[in-house]
Amino acid sequence: MANIEHINVLRAPIAKVYEALTTEEGLTAVWTSELKVKPEVGFINEFSFGAETDRFEIKALVPNQRVLWYCIDSDPQWIGTSVSFDLEEKNGKTFVTLKQTDWAEVTEFYRHCNYNWAFFLYSLQCYCENGKGINYQQR
Length: 139
Known about the structure:
By secondary structure, the chain is α+β, with helices and mostly antiparallel strands. It has a single domain (2-134), classed as START domain (Alpha-D-Glucose-1,6-Bisphosphate, Chain A, domain 4, 2-Layer Sandwich). It is built from three helices and seven strands. A seven-stranded antiparallel beta sheet has the order 1-7-6-5-4-3-2, with helices on one face. Strand 2 (35-36) and strand 3 (44-49) form a beta hairpin. Helix 1 (14-22) packs across helix 2 (24-30). The longest helix is centred in the C-terminal third of the chain and has 23 residues, at 108-130. The chain is globular, with a radius of gyration of 14 Å.
């Protein structure tokens, strides 16, 4: 099994970062404007990228600490993977650790996603620090 792991440090309050990762407003700004999300454990978040839609069941929401999704519908390489965001505040900054775990193997698509998760964190940083992310539709 392979995992994708990234960390980024944001000059933003932890509550702002958590809100960006769990609300329609935040995820629209950061990831895609075509979505259905609800900050509720068990809800199936849907993120669309043109003809593709990714569906994640929300497995855990710990305010200002953790968000955990489990992929139930997407590219076959994503199904069964988990995406987590762990948050920690230190000295007025928020450390965000993003992981996508349980990849079957390292493939070309894995490498593509690895890059795009890093860009997701950059978009999150732009949104939380400056009020404007760079979602899929803007790229």
